[in-house]
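Example record for the data management plan.
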Amino acid sequence: MAMFATLLATAQPPANDDCQNATVLPVNALIDCPSNTVSGDNSMATFAVGEPYCDPGGTYQDVWYTFNSGIHDTVEIDLQIGTIQDWGLEVLDACDTAGTTVACGIYPQLHYVVQVIPGRQYWVRLFTNLDFDLPGTFGICISASDPPPLCEGSTVKTDQDEDFVITCPDGSPDLITLVNYSTGLSPYIYVLMDQDDVTVWPITGDTFDADTLAPGVYHIHGVSFDGLLIGAVPGRPITDIGSDGQCYDLSDNYVELDVEICTGISSSAPVALSAMLTSERTALLLRGAGPIGDARVDLFDLQGRIVASWQVRGSATERSLPLPSACADAPYVVRMTLLDGGTPFRATVR
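Corresponding structural encoding:
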């Protein structure tokens, strides 16, 4: 008698035997499936009403799950097979026969990509058609990728992958093309500012002519914004920038633009420095009255295009920096930035 009572106890239907008592499943990040798989078993399940849309005309045992789509418009459902021999999966937008089928598939399908409406509740029926094979254990996991952000400032550079450009106004166009790496859904604009981050003017499009600028140091910021951009007005600080929409986001960095006078460029540094090209124009020589220290050295042509860059370290008073190829017979700009934040050095070399 005790054994008979035990068998009756183990033969009880599972808790999620009907959709009113569906087991709640989370929507995981894509990388978290199948590690967050939830175990299931329809061996003792029953069947009430409503044949599966994609497998009609059979005898079934099914269990039910439910999830909320949250911010997602697509979810992925993955099955892990245990002892179950025949299976099918149906996604509905309401419980039982009141729902409309959103997705449906049968053996041997294990992966489902389901289009959903954000913020809606959905029900998942995992069933076995007993006309074909047996029910059993399985695992189920729901996941989704995060949608792109509405506003994302990200990073800005030139189309030459630079975040520092030197130009000099000589009457010839100095076109600078900007790029950003935002994945945001909102519009994106570049804003030209002075070195104190006060707006000079918003840039129309991705390319502008730096030859029209007065000598000085400029910062080019990117802004991703929803709605209308406000505060990007000449003479107003960067802190005034915003939007009348849901969000705005400034770029994480800026492109520094140094507009130099084409001749007579001054030099300054914590120690007296000189710079010159070798007679063969195959190396840049730096000489200091004291240790030069750790620094980044960049060599630009007068259109602001970078010719070569070096990282120098140590306390030597003289450096010979090899060039990748011989330089043309023309002026160049040397810029040395000390890694400890000291005064930068600029000079022209010929």
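Summary line stored alongside the record: The first strand starts at residue 23 and ends at 24.
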